[in-house]
Amino acid sequence: MSVADKSQKKSGGLGETVSVIVQALLLALVIRTLLFQPFSIPSGSMRPTLLEGDYLFVTKWAYGYSRYSLPFSPDLFSGRIWGGEPERGDVAVFKFPPNPSIDYIKRVIGLPGDKIQMKGGQLFINDVAVPREKVGQIDNPDITEVARPVDVYRETLPNGVSFDTLDLTPSGIGDDTPVFEVPAGHYFMMGDNRDNSSDSRFTVGYVPAENLVGRANIIFFSIADGASPLEIWKWPTDMRIGRLFNFIR
Fold it and tell me: In the CATH scheme, what is the homologous superfamily, with its name and number, of domain 38-247?
């Protein structure tokens, strides 16, 4: 084999490698944009449903697509295409309305046209109290973030979706609110950790449909104590094995 032949072979092999890498990156981009996107939980606002250190997949097609479905959120179009309506009780990722560069995750509580209010720690939707049953206490700081027992209440929304909420502070600042009337094309979002959640009762406000990114579906990894998934040596002690591949409800 001549020197020229060897050079052409090396050049061809390098070109094929670059081509494979480019194709793989494009495929990953398409999957991330249209199908699934991974997210990590940065705060305790959705405890006990989601914990810091949970890593989950969000389905991008659940609510259709807006400019926020695309990397870097280019202003190519307004509204949503192939839009699907969120259901009450969905756990959804959305762009923070005052600063769309920030991702938030909360539960969909109020739909367009709803009246939402908290009275004495109980949720009211359209002037009807949402059933709220105390189901016990959690005495585990990894779940509650506090070193004491915390009351847990199960709420059941009008469409039958049930989930647990934490009551860290009886008579907390978010337990009594004015009536919020959800505008058309917007949603009212709340965290399950009712006394430790910046949500539509406070700074988040009403969330435009355009800001929805997708529905949280499954936890694929979870690790405690602020450890990174890359710190493999911490997996034996810090991985929350019981949370792996749990569906989010």
Answer: Umud Fragment, subunit A (2.10.109.10)
Q: Is 109 helix (H, G, I), strand (E, B) or coil?
A: strand
Per-domain boundaries in the chain: 38-247
Per-residue exposure over 79-100, b if at least 16 CB sit within 10 Å of its own CB, e if not: ebeeeeebebbbbbbbbbbeee
Most confident segment among 8-17, 55-64, 70-79, 121-130: 121-130
Query: What residue spans of 47-175 are helical by DSSP H?
Result: 141-144
Beta strands in 76-197 (DSSP E): 91-95, 103-110, 115-119, 122-125, 128-129, 132-138, 150-156, 162-167, 180-181, 186-190
**Residue 187 and residue 95 in contact, taking contact as beta carbons nearer than 8 Å:** no
The helix (run of H) or strand (run of E) holding residue 213 is: strand 212-222
Rounded Cα gap, residues 214 and 207, in angstroms: 13
- Per-residue pLDDT tens digits for 192-204: 999 999 999 999 9
Supply the pLDDT for residue 82: 82
Active site residues: 45, 106
